[in-house]
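hi! just following up on the protien thing from before. the input was this:
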Amino acid sequence: MFAKAKLRIQDPTIVGVELGGSKITAHVYRIHDQEGSLVHIASSCVQSKGLNRHTIARIEWLEESILNVLHTVEQQSKTTIKDAYIVVPSGILSSKMIENNIDLGGRPVTDETLRKLHDISVFINQKKDEEVLHVLPLRYSLDDMDNITDPHKMVGRKLSVLIHVITASKSFLHNIRQIFAHADVRIKGIIANPYATGLALLDEETMQLGSTVIDVGAESTTLSCFLDGELMFFKHFPLGAHHITRHIARKLNLSMEAAERAKIHYGFVSADAPAITMNEPIVDGNIQRYIAPIIMNDIEDLTIQVFDVLNQLDPKVWDRILVTGGGSQISGLTEFWSRGFRKQVRQESNYKLPSPLNDMTLAASLGAIKYGFTDYYNRASDHLGCFSNKTIWQRIKHWFNEDF
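and the predicted 3d structure came back as:
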């Protein structure tokens, strides 16, 4: 009861904003305290002006885009937005694995033990332009016992942990903070795009057993691998749906708008598509027959890169492969990857959140809402000193089971 009383004095409004390569998306949700449920209030997206392949090309254009999307959801929700959770693009991220250990001397593992174990300040040599976003404990070992998910209250001589540390460009974040400060919006949390995408699409079981999400975006494709309840690996590939459109436009001498329409109407992925080269001349003026081969050139290139990465990881992480993002809507892509990876690959837009939208491009932005929902309840649990080492899904499950 104390925890719930503590929660009710918080603002139950959660705002998530994704800074994407082609658009900026914002959502407003509200938490219904009595039921512990999320209610969708408003959503909007605008063209992502000022961002060029995950770099800030013109900050005044980017600021205008962000202010526009915030203003729109404020009008829709009739709410003044005071704070928000921000999803930043994969192209500005880096990651590394860190192993740490602590001597227990036969004493039980406590919250304080884990805080010391998770302190990475001694081990990570941050560059001047890097800022830590996420510190994700992957697995623990206690003496000769491995693959421990929760070492709380266990006793032994030495406790070890493998930690996935995700960092982001400090200069990028500094400029984003400046934009939101101008809008009088406080940034409550910054979430890496691969992490947010997984939160939106995966449930506790699939995160625990192992899953891979391939997000085919406008300017890039992001591979996110989850195992034992955490993001254990991600990879950013600088090839997305807009690159395919540009190749169609260049090969067929079309405008970008006409090339995008041609891709949507005539494009498909098939191993049976005839092979062509970008220098091969067009004959008989029939451009339709060239759309699929052009798409296949890029998809085959991306497939090889993704497969090479997956082949080096624990096979459990790609037992389940989900595909999302605007580029994943190309006809035949999931079937082609299912045959190529010899796994069932399914397209996914079930975000496990109440939303009037069924859009393949919303995973990361809705992941910010899921992150904010958990953060809302973690404030009480952290105050009470409860399960501070649990994964994000374990915390959500605890609150639903115990309090609602």
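The two ends are 11 Å apart (CA to CA).
The mean pLDDT is 85.
cheers
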